[in-house]
Specification:
The chain is of the alpha/beta class. 32% of the residues lie in helices and 24% in strands. The strands form four sheets. Strands 1-7-6-4-5 form a five-stranded mixed sheet, with helices on both faces. Strands 8-13-12-11 form a four-stranded mixed sheet, sandwiched between helices. It has a two-stranded antiparallel sheet with strand order 2-3. Strand 4, helix 4 and strand 5 form a beta-alpha-beta unit. Helix 3 crosses helix 4 and helix 8 runs parallel beside helix 9. Bound molecules: coenzyme A. Coenzyme A binds next to helix 2, helix 6, helix 8 and strand 12.
């Protein structure tokens, strides 16, 4: 029997300094603080202002934060999975550059793209490599510079997204802690409801695509909301039932931070009390691949060894799912 489980043993994060508040957005598009707060729960988000810096900048900072806090040697890292929907550039993998920049020269790296579920899917991938016994230190980074693809004249999207990065280290565990179960799903029905229309192989970049603003993220918010509410709640409920967990057994819900109402619906279905539902959406908005590790980083001080944590996410594609993980350490 394989007795190796894959546990999260360290967390790091980074957000840029610049704060874009609802008040400032009021001066940019026809919106107001009250509407944004009641419809989404977001008050402000962080923006990477430097025009010459991409997602890799955020990812490197988050990885360096983890390396410093956990006091590990980057040379020990076996592999890096870079979860992102906003790679620095097409083709050249952002994760490869990040690995080199942080001195993880013994690691191999690649990018994983599943929109807002990138980090959740990345947890599955990282854990599988560790559980198999093939690698011992797998660094999973979730980072997105959403401001690089947001149209700041479109009030349906610009109020939602922000920039940020987080990282976790997966290592083998012999006490049964770490990832316990996962339920990951996808459905191509979502392809047209949340996307960047041009710049890929289907509609390559032309003068017209630029003129027609087809390189920004667009969404049918109502439809995305409907699918997200149902699927995140369904997936989380299924994970509970399948593992014979009651709401009492769950210590924390770590949900993708897309919209407070989606999180509330998921928590409601799980019949969780508010104090177990972790949120920082008011400060960062939706940072896509970075939401889950940013929550882990902000609330790490609350977690105790053995705590039952349920992760849940939903994203473009559509992609979604839920992961059940047992926390592996008390913070020093
Ligand atoms: C985008 C979202 C916040 C919009 O909230 P909503 O309650 O669905 O709002 P609607 O789209 O129904 O719009 C309601 C009204 O507010 C208006 N509105 C839209 N954006 C607005 C804004 N930023 N400020 C003020 N009014 C706005 C609409 O035009 C509409 O007006 P109307 O009734 O006169 O037509 C919500 O749909 C959502 O969060 N969707 C999921 C998005 C998401 O999570 N995406 C990432 C996936 S991981």
């Amino acid at each position: 029997m394989n007795t190796i489980t894959a546990a999260i043993t360290a967390v790091g994060a980074y957000v840029p300094d610049f704060v874009l508040s609802n008040k400032v957005l009021e001066t940019m598009v026809d919106t107001n603080d009250e509407w944004i707060t009641t419809r989404t729960g977001i008050k402000e988000r962080r923006i990477l202002k430097d025009a010459d810096k991409g997602t890799s900048f955020l990812a490197i900072k988050a990885a360096q934060d983890l390396i410093a806090k956990a006091n590990i040697d980057p040379l020990e890292i076996d592999m890096i999975i870079m979860a992102t929907a906003t790679a620095d550039m097409p083709v050249a993998s952002t994760g490869v550059y990040v690995a080199t920049e942080i001195g993880a020269t013994n690691a191999f790296a690649y990018d994983l793209q599943a929109a807002c579920s990138s980090f959740l899917y990345g947890m599955s991938t990282a854990a599988a490599y560790v559980q198999s016994g093939r690698y011992k230190k797998v660094l999973l980074i979730g980072a997105d510079k959403m401001s690089s693809i947001v149209d700041y004249t479109d009030r349906a999207t610009c109020i939602i997204f922000g920039d940020g990065a987080g990282a976790v280290l997966f290592e083998p565990n012999h006490e049964g802690l770490g990832l316990q179960d996962e339920y990951l799903r996808s459905d191509g029905v979502g392809r047209d409801f949340l996307k960047i229309p041009a710049g890929g192989s289907l509609i390559p970049t032309t003068e017209d695509t630029v003129k027609n603003r087809l390189h920004n993220i667009i969404q049918d918010g109502k439809t995305v909301f409907k699918y997200a509410v149902t699927n995140m709640a369904d997936a989380s409920e299924l994970i509970l039932k399948r593992n014979n967990l009651t709401n009492e057994d769950v210590n924390w819900l770590v949900p993708h931070q897309a919209n407070k109402r989606i999180i509330d619906a998921t928590a409601g279905r799980m019949e969780l009390e508010d104090s177990k539902v972790l949120m920082n959406i008011e400060k960062y908005g939706n940072t896509t691949s970075a939401t889950l590790p940013l929550v882990l980083n902000d609330f790490e001080h609350l977690f105790k060894k053995g705590d039952n944590i349920i992760f849940a996410a939903f994203g473009g594609g559509f992609t979604w799912g839920s992961i059940y993980l047992k926390w592996a350490y008390d913070k020093k």
